[in-house]
Amino acid sequence: MRKPIIAGNWKMHKTRDEALQFIYAVNQNVQSDEVIDTVVCAPDVLLRCLVKRQGDYVRIGAQNMHFEEQGAFTGETSPIVLQDTGVKYVILGHSERRAMFNETDETVNKKALKAFEHELTPIVCVGEALEQRENGTTNEVVDAQVTKALNGLTNEQIKEVVIAYEPIWAIGTGKTATPEMANETCGYIRTVLEREYGKDVADAVRIQYGGSVKPHNIKELMSQEHIDGALVGGASLEPESFLALVNYNE
Ligand SMILES: O=C(CO)COP(=O)(O)O
């Protein structure tokens, strides 16, 4: 049985005061991490103040990092600093970073390898564009993204990786993939994992769906066989809606 994992991705939202209000409102009201993993992925400058106040069951994640530990990389964040800050997760390869900041499958892979050196759990994002969905290449696209991202990781590491399937056309658009459609592609990702790394690994990896996940659709999405969690943008910004998501099973 895979433990559900619901992660908020705040993207470039929130001031320090807003982040503090959020974490105080949320950290008393989430379920034990024996039942569900609750994660908040925040902008870098807010990470330390959130880690300090994360409470017993919320864990904090970053939204990106560099694959090098230090050097002449103006504006980038080192994995050493994330580890030192107490961050536990890092989102890698979000479609916004692929589209706007030159993230590639190769850099996602280097970052995934580096994340494990620093005890960070990667949340690896994959997903097709609308055109790819329409011309029937979704499976090919996610197959390549998944296998390239995980290249060189050990099977034990791959079991720890979280994969977030986020169809690009469903992000921030209010268009959710139907639960069946989301489950179908998450299930396909699991067959790719089984083909490459065996059933034992494929059964262990947690696959999230992301793209217009809201309190009203979380239950149905989470009831799907291959959907083990959600990566949530807009609905993760307010304590009420975030709590409704992470407490979907109460
Ligand atoms: O990109 C997302 C999470 O990473 C999804 O964003 P929305 O939930 O706002 O569609």
Give the terminus-to-terminus CA distance: 18 Å
What is the residue-mean pLDDT, rounded to a whole number?
A: 97
Give the oligomeric state of the chains in this entry, treating copies of one chain as homo and distinct chains as hetero. single chain
| Alpha-beta classification | alpha/beta
What is the second-level CATH architecture?
Answer: Alpha-Beta Barrel
Tell me the strand percentage band.
15-25%
The outline comes out as globular
The set of bound ligands, ions and cofactors reads: 1,3-dihydroxyacetonephosphate
Instruction: Report the CATH C-level class.
Output: Alpha Beta
Number of domains: 1
Query: Order of strands across the widest beta sheet?
Result: 1-2-3-4-5-6-7-8
EC number: 5.3.1.1
Pfam family, one: TIM
Function: Involved in the gluconeogenesis. Catalyzes stereospecifically the conversion of dihydroxyacetone phosphate (DHAP) to D-glyceraldehyde-3-phosphate (G3P).
Subcellular location: Cytoplasm
Task: Tell me what the structure shows.
It is a single chain. The protein has 250 residues and is an alpha/beta fold. It has one domain: TIM Barrel. It is 42% helix and 15% strand. It is built from 12 helices and 8 strands. The protein has an 8-stranded parallel β-barrel with strand order 1-2-3-4-5-6-7-8, surrounded by 4 helices. Helix 1 links the parallel strand 1 and strand 2. Helix 7 packs across helix 9. It is globular. The model has no long low-confidence stretch (mean pLDDT 97). The structure holds 1,3-dihydroxyacetonephosphate. 1,3-dihydroxyacetonephosphate binds next to strand 8.
